[in-house]
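Sat 14:20. Reprocessing the chain from the morning session after the first attempt stalled halfway. Input below, unchanged.
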Amino acid sequence: MTTHQPQVEKSATVSFALGNSAKRHHEFALAEEDSDDSEGDGTCCGQPPLKQTAVALEDSASKAARLERDGIVLASDGKYNQALRLWNEAVDLAPERAELYEMKAQLLMLLEEYFPAVQAAEQAVKKKPEWVEGWLTLGRCQMNYGEVHVALETFSLCWKLAQRQGNKHVARELEDDVAHANTLVSLGRFRKLPDQQPGPASATCCARKHASSPKANPTPCD
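Finished this time. C-alpha coordinates:
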Protein backbone atom coordinates (compact mmCIF):
# COMPACT_ATOMS: atom_id res chain seq x y z
CA MET A 1 0.00 0.00 0.00
CA THR A 2 1.50 3.36 -1.02
CA THR A 3 1.27 6.47 1.12
CA HIS A 4 0.69 9.20 -1.50
CA GLN A 5 -2.70 10.88 -1.60
CA PRO A 6 -5.25 9.38 -4.01
CA GLN A 7 -6.77 11.24 -6.91
CA VAL A 8 -10.24 11.13 -5.44
CA GLU A 9 -12.43 14.21 -5.53
CA LYS A 10 -14.17 15.70 -2.52
CA SER A 11 -17.48 14.13 -3.50
CA ALA A 12 -15.98 10.72 -2.77
CA THR A 13 -15.83 11.46 0.95
CA VAL A 14 -18.26 9.38 2.98
CA SER A 15 -20.34 11.33 5.45
CA PHE A 16 -20.94 9.79 8.84
CA ALA A 17 -22.05 10.81 12.31
CA LEU A 18 -19.32 10.81 14.92
CA GLY A 19 -22.02 10.45 17.54
CA ASN A 20 -22.65 6.90 16.36
CA SER A 21 -19.24 5.89 17.66
CA ALA A 22 -19.97 7.50 20.98
CA LYS A 23 -23.07 5.34 21.23
CA ARG A 24 -21.20 2.22 20.15
CA HIS A 25 -18.22 2.51 22.44
CA HIS A 26 -18.27 0.70 25.75
CA GLU A 27 -17.31 2.39 28.98
CA PHE A 28 -14.58 0.90 31.11
CA ALA A 29 -15.76 -1.23 33.99
CA LEU A 30 -13.52 0.18 36.67
CA ALA A 31 -12.69 -1.82 39.73
CA GLU A 32 -13.99 -0.45 43.00
CA GLU A 33 -11.35 1.12 45.20
CA ASP A 34 -9.98 -1.29 47.75
CA SER A 35 -10.66 0.08 51.24
CA ASP A 36 -8.77 -2.71 53.02
CA ASP A 37 -5.89 -1.08 54.93
CA SER A 38 -4.45 -4.31 56.28
CA GLU A 39 -0.71 -4.87 56.08
CA GLY A 40 -1.09 -8.08 54.07
CA ASP A 41 -0.38 -6.30 50.78
CA GLY A 42 1.85 -8.95 49.24
CA THR A 43 5.10 -6.95 49.52
CA CYS A 44 8.17 -9.12 49.07
CA CYS A 45 11.54 -9.23 47.35
CA GLY A 46 11.54 -5.50 46.64
CA GLN A 47 8.38 -5.70 44.54
CA PRO A 48 5.74 -2.91 44.85
CA PRO A 49 2.78 -3.73 47.11
CA LEU A 50 -0.09 -5.44 45.29
CA LYS A 51 -2.49 -2.78 46.52
CA GLN A 52 -0.37 0.02 45.02
CA THR A 53 -0.13 -1.85 41.74
CA ALA A 54 -3.92 -2.27 41.59
CA VAL A 55 -4.47 1.41 42.28
CA ALA A 56 -1.98 2.37 39.56
CA LEU A 57 -3.80 0.16 37.06
CA GLU A 58 -7.13 1.62 38.06
CA ASP A 59 -5.81 5.15 37.71
CA SER A 60 -4.52 4.35 34.22
CA ALA A 61 -7.88 2.95 33.14
CA SER A 62 -9.73 5.86 34.71
CA LYS A 63 -7.57 8.39 32.91
CA ALA A 64 -7.99 6.60 29.58
CA ALA A 65 -11.76 6.57 30.01
CA ARG A 66 -11.79 10.28 30.87
CA LEU A 67 -9.63 11.12 27.84
CA GLU A 68 -11.97 9.09 25.66
CA ARG A 69 -15.06 10.91 26.95
CA ASP A 70 -13.43 14.33 26.71
CA GLY A 71 -12.34 13.56 23.17
CA ILE A 72 -15.90 12.71 22.18
CA VAL A 73 -17.07 16.10 23.49
CA LEU A 74 -14.33 17.94 21.60
CA ALA A 75 -14.97 16.03 18.38
CA SER A 76 -18.69 16.75 18.62
CA ASP A 77 -17.79 20.46 18.87
CA GLY A 78 -15.65 20.22 15.74
CA LYS A 79 -12.35 20.43 17.62
CA TYR A 80 -10.89 17.46 15.79
CA ASN A 81 -7.17 18.02 16.40
CA GLN A 82 -7.68 18.47 20.12
CA ALA A 83 -9.83 15.34 20.27
CA LEU A 84 -7.21 13.41 18.33
CA ARG A 85 -4.51 14.39 20.82
CA LEU A 86 -6.61 13.13 23.71
CA TRP A 87 -7.38 9.85 21.99
CA ASN A 88 -3.71 9.32 21.19
CA GLU A 89 -2.99 9.69 24.89
CA ALA A 90 -5.82 7.29 25.70
CA VAL A 91 -4.42 4.72 23.26
CA ASP A 92 -1.08 4.85 25.08
CA LEU A 93 -2.89 4.07 28.33
CA ALA A 94 -5.34 1.51 26.92
CA PRO A 95 -3.86 0.07 23.70
CA GLU A 96 -6.36 -2.80 23.72
CA ARG A 97 -9.33 -0.46 23.13
CA ALA A 98 -10.51 -1.09 19.56
CA GLU A 99 -13.09 1.67 19.90
CA LEU A 100 -10.39 4.31 20.32
CA TYR A 101 -8.76 3.31 17.04
CA GLU A 102 -12.11 3.33 15.24
CA MET A 103 -12.97 6.82 16.50
CA LYS A 104 -9.47 7.99 15.54
CA ALA A 105 -10.10 6.68 12.03
CA GLN A 106 -13.29 8.73 11.80
CA LEU A 107 -11.51 11.89 12.91
CA LEU A 108 -8.64 11.32 10.49
CA MET A 109 -11.12 11.03 7.65
CA LEU A 110 -12.62 14.36 8.64
CA LEU A 111 -9.10 15.81 8.65
CA GLU A 112 -8.55 14.27 5.19
CA GLU A 113 -5.68 12.16 6.52
CA TYR A 114 -6.90 9.11 4.67
CA PHE A 115 -3.90 6.77 4.89
CA PRO A 116 -3.50 7.18 8.69
CA ALA A 117 -7.27 6.66 8.90
CA VAL A 118 -6.89 3.29 7.14
CA GLN A 119 -4.09 2.34 9.54
CA ALA A 120 -6.17 3.24 12.59
CA ALA A 121 -9.20 1.31 11.33
CA GLU A 122 -7.01 -1.71 10.60
CA GLN A 123 -5.89 -1.67 14.22
CA ALA A 124 -9.51 -1.55 15.36
CA VAL A 125 -10.53 -4.71 13.50
CA LYS A 126 -7.26 -6.43 14.41
CA LYS A 127 -8.06 -5.97 18.09
CA LYS A 128 -11.77 -6.77 17.67
CA PRO A 129 -12.20 -9.01 14.60
CA GLU A 130 -15.94 -9.60 15.03
CA TRP A 131 -16.81 -5.90 15.45
CA VAL A 132 -18.99 -5.14 12.44
CA GLU A 133 -18.89 -1.35 12.92
CA GLY A 134 -15.10 -1.50 12.87
CA TRP A 135 -15.16 -3.20 9.47
CA LEU A 136 -17.65 -0.64 8.19
CA THR A 137 -15.33 2.19 9.18
CA LEU A 138 -12.35 0.39 7.62
CA GLY A 139 -14.20 0.08 4.31
CA ARG A 140 -15.05 3.78 4.37
CA CYS A 141 -11.43 4.68 5.08
CA GLN A 142 -10.24 2.51 2.21
CA MET A 143 -12.79 4.09 -0.13
CA ASN A 144 -11.72 7.61 0.84
CA TYR A 145 -8.09 6.65 0.35
CA GLY A 146 -8.96 5.60 -3.19
CA GLU A 147 -8.72 1.83 -2.80
CA VAL A 148 -12.31 1.31 -3.85
CA HIS A 149 -11.96 -2.32 -4.90
CA VAL A 150 -10.37 -3.17 -1.55
CA ALA A 151 -13.20 -1.30 0.15
CA LEU A 152 -15.76 -3.42 -1.71
CA GLU A 153 -14.12 -6.56 -0.38
CA THR A 154 -14.21 -5.11 3.14
CA PHE A 155 -17.87 -4.18 2.72
CA SER A 156 -18.56 -7.75 1.58
CA LEU A 157 -16.98 -9.12 4.76
CA CYS A 158 -18.83 -6.53 6.83
CA TRP A 159 -22.11 -7.58 5.21
CA LYS A 160 -21.52 -11.21 6.13
CA LEU A 161 -20.77 -10.27 9.74
CA ALA A 162 -23.85 -8.02 9.90
CA GLN A 163 -26.06 -10.83 8.60
CA ARG A 164 -24.59 -13.36 10.99
CA GLN A 165 -25.02 -11.00 13.95
CA GLY A 166 -28.44 -9.73 12.87
CA ASN A 167 -27.17 -6.12 12.74
CA LYS A 168 -29.81 -4.53 10.51
CA HIS A 169 -28.57 -0.99 11.15
CA VAL A 170 -25.13 -1.66 9.66
CA ALA A 171 -26.70 -3.63 6.81
CA ARG A 172 -28.79 -0.56 5.90
CA GLU A 173 -25.75 1.73 6.07
CA LEU A 174 -23.85 -0.63 3.78
CA GLU A 175 -26.41 -0.09 1.02
CA ASP A 176 -25.35 3.53 0.55
CA ASP A 177 -21.65 2.76 0.96
CA VAL A 178 -21.68 -0.01 -1.63
CA ALA A 179 -23.71 2.14 -4.04
CA HIS A 180 -21.21 4.97 -3.67
CA ALA A 181 -18.26 2.63 -4.18
CA ASN A 182 -19.84 1.26 -7.36
CA THR A 183 -20.33 4.81 -8.63
CA LEU A 184 -16.62 5.49 -8.12
CA VAL A 185 -15.75 2.27 -9.95
CA SER A 186 -18.01 3.16 -12.88
CA LEU A 187 -16.36 6.60 -13.10
CA GLY A 188 -12.87 5.11 -12.89
CA ARG A 189 -12.12 7.06 -9.73
CA PHE A 190 -10.03 4.60 -7.76
CA ARG A 191 -6.40 3.93 -6.99
CA LYS A 192 -4.66 1.48 -9.31
CA LEU A 193 -1.92 -0.33 -7.44
CA PRO A 194 1.35 -1.11 -9.26
CA ASP A 195 1.44 -4.36 -11.26
CA GLN A 196 -2.23 -5.02 -10.61
CA GLN A 197 -5.35 -5.10 -12.67
CA PRO A 198 -8.06 -2.53 -11.82
CA GLY A 199 -9.32 -4.78 -9.05
CA PRO A 200 -9.52 -8.32 -7.71
CA ALA A 201 -12.08 -10.62 -9.26
CA SER A 202 -14.19 -10.68 -6.13
CA ALA A 203 -14.36 -6.88 -5.96
CA THR A 204 -15.23 -6.69 -9.66
CA CYS A 205 -17.93 -9.24 -8.96
CA CYS A 206 -19.35 -7.02 -6.21
CA ALA A 207 -19.28 -3.97 -8.46
CA ARG A 208 -21.05 -5.81 -11.27
CA LYS A 209 -23.74 -7.15 -8.96
CA HIS A 210 -24.66 -3.78 -7.50
CA ALA A 211 -24.09 -1.37 -10.38
CA SER A 212 -27.61 -1.86 -11.73
CA SER A 213 -29.34 -1.06 -8.44
CA PRO A 214 -27.75 1.53 -6.10
CA LYS A 215 -30.17 0.67 -3.30
CA ALA A 216 -29.90 -3.09 -3.59
CA ASN A 217 -28.76 -5.06 -0.57
CA PRO A 218 -25.02 -5.69 -0.85
CA THR A 219 -24.80 -9.37 -1.73
CA PRO A 220 -21.57 -10.90 -0.47
CA CYS A 221 -19.27 -12.25 -3.15
CA ASP A 222 -18.48 -15.94 -3.16
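The two ends are 25 Å apart (CA to CA).
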